[in-house]
Amino acid sequence: MSTTVPAPVPVVVVDDHAMFRSGVRAELAASGAGQVEVLAEAEDVDTAVRAIAAHRPRVVLLDVHLPGGGGVEVMRRAQGASPETRYLALSVSDAAEDVIGTIRGGARGYVTKTITGPELVSAVRRVADGDAVFSPRLAGFVLDAFAGSIEVAQVDEDLDRLTEREREVMRLIARGYAYKEVARELFISIKTVETHMSSVLRKLQLSSRHELTRWASDRRLL
Amino acid sequence: MTSTSSPPVSPPAGPPAARPFPRRMARDTGSPVLGGVAGGLAAHLGVPVLWVRAAFLVSSALGGTGLAFYVGLWLLVPADTRFERSTPGGEAATRGGRRPGRVRRAVDTGPAVALAALAIGAVLVVRATLGGGAVFWPVVLGAAGVALLWRQADEAQRERWLSPSGRLDPVQVVFGTGGWASYARVAAGLVLVLGALVVLSVSGGTFGEARIALVAALLGVTGLGLVVGPWVFRLAADLTAEREERVRSQERADVAAHLHDSVLQTLALIQRGAHDPATVSRLARSQERDLRSWLYAGESTDDASLAGALRAAAAEVEDSFGVTVDVVAVGDRPFGEALRPVVQATREAVTNAAKHAGTGRVDVYAEVSPTSVDVFVRDRGAGFDLAAVPDDRLGVRRSILDRMERHGGTAEVRSAPGEGTEIRLHLPLEEAL
Predict the structure, then answer these.
(1) Given an 8 Å threshold on Cβ–Cβ distance, is B21 in contact with A73?
(2) Which end of chain A is more exposed for a tag (fewer CB within 10 A), N or C?
């Protein structure tokens, strides 16, 4: 998909570890030459908000844990200055609260820092195109969060459950399938897969299930 | 956040269906209406919170037992804040302000307003039916004041638990981190309690007598404060010092132990094996997995639960073959004899993928429902043609297939040259959870 869009995606990298920032920069330069362009870096919430307001990047690679209130705070405060910017969370933390919290805070996807360069580039492009990016782990969290008993008297029923198709897509992603493979497996187009994923993301962000916020810590006690 | 738990430690051996921990009730201080008692009790009993609230209200109206019960629980049941444990990395990030804090929404005031209206109604009903004696209004005022002060004590305690310093500041003990709400609560509570005293003394007789009674009461309180004050203050100071010291030494001990155990060892091994990139990357990968799970995931890799056992098996293969095995588990259940074949078959499948696929990556996905366990092991490697399988690999496959079938499950292999391989293990569970 690199050849279809000629202009590189402008990106801001936000992480409190300088070494990691330079690593990401080098990796994006190596695997994403011509596809991704790093405009600026930031190390905490304040500098991140300033950098986003100044550069208005298409995509922000956002660390979940940041001095000043975390990545969620960046998304909240930079919203006004640059509403078109999309966020891809990038974190060492696999804690469910962090992952779900960041997605509900507005991130379009979540990948861990062990992701390879080419995978990161393709994730950035995907987010820039307005699609959602689910790692297998995030898909697992989603299935877990929406699993089980759905109370009868929910406030908003459509948002509080996944359709059978969305569940299937999530299961395949959790099993490590790429989008292409998901599409082939379910006999649907890649575009349809992306539609399903965006819809799951929307449900994750808008669902009023308060269990969703409690679920993360409760599941550890099973 | 959670209200019914102690920290996640490995449960003791026992029947797998039994709940591993005795459940302990805690007041829900995260989003309380009054003292969080009803919320905590509802979570503890597993019933809707509305029922509990209704029960409290009804039994309060019928003779006041509910009220007494509520007050008693508020006094005695600990707030859930002290159970709020996260992983070391998560807690460190919270203390350092690198994670978002809790947000309170305006919606939360709705139930409080409703409750206040109900309380006023109840007061009026009681007054209409029983008539108010001399002590009626003072008691109502005093109770409201005490409730406000207790509520503030809860808030202050919650903020103290979340505070990074571990110090006990006398002002902080009363007001928490401040804010108009806490000042207003303390002021209103004091005014109500004092008002109750005033009303009580005024209703006794003339204003002159009331003044004498008030002065006497104030003198009594002041005297008590003088006697007990220094003692309380010293106790608080000692407590602060002890708390600070304990927090610091625990943190130091945790970090030191973990660094020594794992990271230093790995660094030493890496130095020794510096000439061999495969070894170095294997060591780095296993150390990374270890540190990550210690810091953030809170995911066990022991045999207490099925997901833990699968992760442990994956970690073993990871270490011996130098590949990356990612385990994603949805749902979980206690690990027992019945589940052993699934874990063994998974290990075989992962090993197989690690040996033959020729890629450095295997994905394991486990889905546990009350009626079955499904495990998918997938690689994107060479794959093979099922019809042209050489005998030795067929043998491995047989050991997976046969094992699963012997234990009432099924196994399915999907593969084609160049397409990678996926092995699906399915085990129905008869026992009801």
Answers:
(1) no
(2) N
